[in-house]
Design goal:
Elements: H1 8-18, E1 48-49, H2 71-75, E2 84-89, H3 99-102, E3 105-107, E4 112-114, H4 128-145, E5 149-152, H5 164-173, E6 178-185, E7 195-199, H6 210-228, E8 241-244, H7 248-251, E9 257-264, H8 268-274, H9 277-295
Parallel strand pairs: 2-5, 2-6, 6-9, 7-8
Antiparallel strand pairs: 1-5, 3-4, 7-9
Helix pairs in contact: 1-9, 4-9, 6-9
């Protein structure tokens, strides 16, 4: 454990990326990704969880003295042992080809919204759904290496949905200790930077998660800002934080949950970083550091 609280596996990921990674008007509502009931797209099959018998990338040798073998034994003693994390990569690669499915209206308590959307993209055509999937797949092994059980709301970037309502249900069913929904914004080109979206109070529905979600959001914001060098958004939110009640993924969650808009994909500078796989690795390491800090209390 380093003096700054960054776990070893996360620190290693940062060292690998820091050497080569780049430095560091109102936006439209954050886009959520989620499949209508009855849709059996590739992404609707099941959320992605750690395979039975799989070992995390940094797990020690099986049969080490005093350490039970198998995934559960290997996680024991790690910083996030016993914790469940749900990562929700926004949107999906097949959404654009199925407008009737993703435009179906669903109830998010404070109103009705489309089941899902296609997301945004950079001016060069790099889509948000691909960005969020890549960050999520880089984040997952970092959390696994620290002992967490990790669930992804979609198993690949080729399916449709699932709906925002279903994505929230995945986190609730998993009894997640933390839920992180990863997005990229599509705001005015002159705006840049990132922001974290916290759940606003929907009385009688998400009362219990407001305070822990704020703590989660602060830890994620602080780590992301510190370890990526990206500034707080200049075009929305305040000090990198926004509170909203129009997002189904937050309204319907019974577990601590936040969204992060990792940058503005319509801004040239942010787009260059978000399109760089080395910088996406840096983002994933920063998110892992923030979530680890929150989960360790």
């Amino acid at each position: 454990m380093r003096a700054d609280g960054t776990a070893p596996a996360i620190a290693a990921a940062l060292v690998a990326t820091l050497a080569t990674a780049c430095g560091g008007g109102a936006s439209p509502p954050a886009r959520e990704a989620t499949t209508p009931p009855g849709t059996r797209s590739p992404a609707a099959r099941a959320p992605l969880t750690e395979p039975q018998g799989a070992r995390s990338p940094s797990a020690g040798p099986q049969g080490a003295p005093g350490t039970p073998t198998g995934p559960q034994g290997e996680r024991a003693g790690r910083p996030l042992a016993g914790k469940v994390v749900v990562i929700d990569p926004g949107h999906n690669g097949g959404n654009a080809a199925h407008p009737a499915q993703i435009n179906r209206q669903v109830d998010i308590i404070t109103g009705r919204k489309p089941c899902n959307t296609t997301g945004t993209s950079t001016d060069a055509g790099y889509p948000e759904h691909a960005f969020t999937w890549d960050v999520a797949r880089r984040l997952r092994p970092l959390l696994l290496a620290e002992g967490a059980k990790v669930v992804l709301t979609r198993p690949d970037d080729e399916g449709v949905g699932p709906c925002v309502t279903e994505r929230a249900a995945i986190g609730n069913k998993a009894r997640a200790d933390a839920v992180l929904s990863v997005h990229g914004d599509g705001a005015v080109a002159s705006g840049h930077g990132f922001h974290v979206i916290l759940p606003g109070l929907v009385a009688g529905h998400n009362d219990a998660i407001i305070r822990p979600s704020r703590r989660l959001g602060l830890d994620v914001r602080d780590a992301f800002h510190r370890l990526t060098g990206l500034p707080y958004a200049t075009y929305t939110a305040r000090n990198g934080l926004s509170v909203r009640t129009d997002l189904g993924g937050l309204n319907l969650s019974t577990r601590p949950a936040v969204f992060i808009e990792c940058g503005n994909m319509r801004n040239r500078g942010d787009a260059a970083k978000m399109s760089d796989p080395r910088f996406r690795q840096r983002m994933a390491a920063a998110l892992a550091a923030g979530m680890t800090r929150y989960l360790k209390g």
